[in-house]
Write a structure and sequence with these properties.
Strand order of the largest sheet: 1-2
Number of strands: 2
Order of helices and strands: HEEHHHHHHH
Number of helices: 8
Radius of gyration: 19 Å
Strand content: under 5%
Distance between the termini: 32 Å
């Protein structure tokens, strides 16, 4: 389903994966039911004290695992030859082809790397709130993050993730958890109206 999307816009590929995820969630619930499961405890359980505040150890260590993954990804994009090929392909597939880059192989590499990162993220998130078919709801927030920050900007994804996370947390605290998704997509509509290419995305100008 993904291979025919070569050459299409990132948002088109993303929407295909959203539809595919809905199908997979249905299959998971049919095979393993929708009951929530717990992962074995593998993170330290001693509460973390920061100043006068206590932080859940799972969230604390999960945060640092995320930081480590981000640093690794940034280093790969900056110094590894495959990372440079990934950036070139994401920027302009035609230009990458002309420079001798095997674009289909780069796409395969991107999916392998994304699956590995998603696997680690799933373990961390599952250790905090349990494993269930509803874990995929995070994908909707990711759509807002990448569009808000810019589809072609790693920095934008980081900044967008922090801002969207703050908006969801504050909305859940003051208005209730049922309004978190509403606030998130209201933010998406706002950024599409003001800067449709995102905060740090490339503003492409085409001559007609």
């Amino acid at each position: 389903m993904i291979r025919p999307m070569l050459g299409e816009s990132p948002i088109s590929s993303f929407m295909v994966t959203v539809g595919l995820s809905s199908i997979l969630v249905g299959l998971v619930e049919l095979i393993w039911t929708a009951d929530q499961q717990r992962l074995p405890e593998f993170l330290p359980s001693k509460p973390i004290e920061i100043g006068e505040a206590f932080v859940s150890p799972k969230i604390f260590y999960g945060f640092w695992i995320a930081v480590l993954l981000i640093v690794v990804v940034l280093l790969v994009f900056r110094f590894w030859r495959g990372g440079v090929a990934l950036r070139a392909t994401a920027s302009d597939q035609a230009a990458a082809y002309s420079m001798g880059i095997n674009v289909p192989r780069v796409f395969s590499l991107a999916w392998v790397a994304a699956a590995m990162i998603a696997g680690v993220a799933g373990i961390v998130v599952g250790s905090i709130g349990g494993i269930s078919s509803a874990m995929g709801v995070f994908g909707l927030s990711v759509l807002v993050v990448v569009i808000f920050g810019g589809l072609d900007s790693v920095l934008g994804a980081l900044v967008g993730g922090i801002l969207v996370g703050l908006v969801e947390a504050l909305t859940g605290f003051y208005l209730g958890g049922e309004y978190k998704i509403l606030a998130t997509f209201s933010l998406l509509v706002l950024i599409l109206m003001v800067r449709p290419y995102g905060l740090f995305g490339t503003h492409e100008i085409e001559r007609l």
